[in-house]
Amino acid sequence: MTDHAAERIEIDASPEACFAVALDFEQYPDWATDVKEATILAADDDGRGGDVAYRVAAMGRSTSYTLRYSYGSNPLRLSWRLIEGDVMERIDGEYEFVALDDGRCEVRYYVSVDMLVPLPGFVKRRAEAKILHTALTDLKQRVESA
Question: Among 7, 22, 25, 81, which residue's Cβ finds the most Cβ atoms within 10 Å?
Answer without folding.
Answer: 22
